[in-house]
Amino acid sequence: MYSISNKINISKKAVLAKNTFINDETIPSVSTTFTCCSCGHENRIEITPYTSGFPILKVYQEDQVLSRNELLKNGMVSETPQTMSHLGALTVNNLPTLYFGTDCSSCHSTYICIFSYGEKQPGLTTLNISGIWEYEEQK
């Protein structure tokens, strides 16, 4: 799990075994698998709430890694309603949104994972993985 700081090009979206976790499923962490788009290897990811990930703002701020348009076009995030703007301009499920980089343990293709975590309503805490996309750094 790492932060991405160079500009990237999004390729394909990987298949996730499970992308939504509710209440007790999020404690102490969530674990799921994704299938590598390049070699078909099944990879495990683990997300620990309040510990894993980096703010999504770092991805689109000044188009540092990806532009807002690329994030929206690829369905990675959605625009946040004005009433929730304190969470940032782009979110997943209108909750605090984070990302991290990972790679395939077999062929080492690189991936970006985008997810949100928080209390959707009183008594309903969710962790939602928007997806995992294969990427290449721009040269």
The count of strands amounts to 11
| Biggest β-sheet strands, sense, barrel | 6 strands, antiparallel
Helix segment tally? 2
**What is the helix/strand order?**
EEEEEEHHEEEEE
Which secondary-structure class do the elements indicate? mainly beta
What gross morphology would you assign? globular
- Which residue ranges are poorly predicted, with pLDDT under 50 across at least 5 consecutive positions? none
Mean of all residue-level pLDDT scores:
93
**Rg, please?**
14 Å
Strand % is 35-45%
Terminal residue distance: 22 Å
Helix content: under 10%
Please tell me about this protein's structure:
This protein is mainly β and 139 residues long. It is built from two helices and eleven strands. It has helices at 57-60, 68-73, and strands at residues 8-13, 15-16, 20-22, 30-35, 42-47, 54-55, 78-79, 90-91, 97-103, 110-121, 124-137. Strands 1, 3, 6, 9, 10 and 11 form a six-stranded antiparallel sheet that branches. Strands 2-4-5 form a three-stranded antiparallel sheet, with no helix packed on it.
